[in-house]
Amino acid sequence: MERENDPANNVPDAIFSKLGMQLHRRDNHPIGILKNAIYEYFDSNYSGKFVKFDDLSPIVSVKANFDDVLVPADHVSRSNNDTYYVDAQTVLRCHTSAHQAELLKTGHSHFLVTGDVYRRDSIDSTHYPVFHQMEGVRVFCSDEWVDSGLDGTSYAAMDLKKSLEGLAKKLFGDVEMRWIDTYFPFTNPSFELEIYFQEKWMEVLGCGVTEQEILERNGKIHSVAWAFGLGLERLAMVLFDIPDIRLFWSTDQRFTSQFSEGKLGIKFKPFSKYPPCYKDMSFWISDSFTENNLCEVVRGIAGDLVEEVRLIDNFTNKKGMTSHCYRIAYRSMERSLTDEEINQLQGDVREAVQSKLKVILR
Ligand code: DAH
């Protein structure tokens, strides 16, 4: 309660109300089904060695979310434009990597962490401020790689790639795969796994060999480790043919009942596609304007009735004033919206945007 009055707090009620929903713990929900399928893969390949955590609180310290996984002090992800702060020292975790350090420290060497994660972002059919990730970590001690002829890092990287290729194969079948070098603060080297699926390359997960500093700080000396993190919604959308990320939150029986078998292989049958309605809104922005803030205001008014918020025009006049025009798509997943309802929403959105964002409507 007190925290809500903290000046650093930027968590709206609509986001707070998602805490505790635990979609990933429902066996008949696509997110829970996917989690269970990944569990099965690790259980059968590592004879139950991976300890599973899916009930850790999403409210974590700034230290756990960022410092402990070596996210630089000036990294954009720390800004209050990207992350939800409960107070100056506490955030809604923006990734399940927030639990790596504490679990290593308590002695775990093989673990999977699944949970809801929170990010301020723009609005479209694949982005929602709450989604779910799974993190995996495996630690090796030196006698595991001495006989391999490889150094620890190469050994871990090789094992990582083999494990994750096996996982992708279990989920997607016999697909073409490729590894892309990338950067994460917590791993070196770092990779992304992509698969060729439905005629395009798709990113499946991020991973890498854990930075020694993380291991050493948490009592793992003479060790190497690998880690990965994957977004469950992204994968579930393609595996189950789910066209819009808002559907995961639907309580409509026509959605929920389709997953009652609790298995991979189910393809979602859209019950109906209701028509979208587009409304444009133009305004002069101020220096503090961000698209994430706009999206939060729109989501705060329209909730899950907003499908997309898209910048369609942007210019600066001779006086140096910048105008943005955004197109808002309203569409319910569950019913037709009336003109009156949409006009009311758009009116409320205009008012809220004007009063909260220091912009001048045109
Ligand atoms: N935390 C990363 C993210 O949210 C995902 C990730 C990448 C996790 C690499 C890892 C890792 O453990 O090694 O984008």
From TrEMBL:
Subcellular location: Mitochondrion matrix
Catalysed transformations (reactions): tRNA(Phe) + L-phenylalanine + ATP = L-phenylalanyl-tRNA(Phe) + AMP + diphosphate + H(+)
EC number of this enzyme: 6.1.1.20
A Pfam family: tRNA-synt_2d
Keywords: Aminoacyl-tRNA synthetase, ATP-binding, Ligase, Mitochondrion, Nucleotide-binding, Protein biosynthesis, Transit peptide
Entry-linked InterPro entries: aa-tRNA-synth_II, aa-tRNA-synth_II/BPL/LPL, Fdx_antiC-bd, Fdx_antiC-bd_sf, Phe-tRNA-synth_IIc_mito, Phenylalanyl-tRNA_Synthase
GO biological process: phenylalanyl-tRNA aminoacylation
Domain Aminoacyl-transfer RNA synthetases class-II family profile: start-end pairs: 115-270
SUPFAM superfamilies named among the record's database cross-references: Anticodon-binding domain of PheRS, Class II aaRS and biotin synthetases
Sequence ranges assigned to domain FDX-ACB in this UniProt record: 272-362
Gene Ontology MF terms in the entry: ATP binding; phenylalanine-tRNA ligase activity; tRNA binding
Superkingdom to which the source organism belongs: Eukaryota
Chief place of localization: mitochondrion
Function field: Is responsible for the charging of tRNA(Phe) with phenylalanine in mitochondrial translation.
Family: Belongs to the class-II aminoacyl-tRNA synthetase family.
Protein name (database record): phenylalanine--tRNA ligase
Organism: Dendrobium catenatum
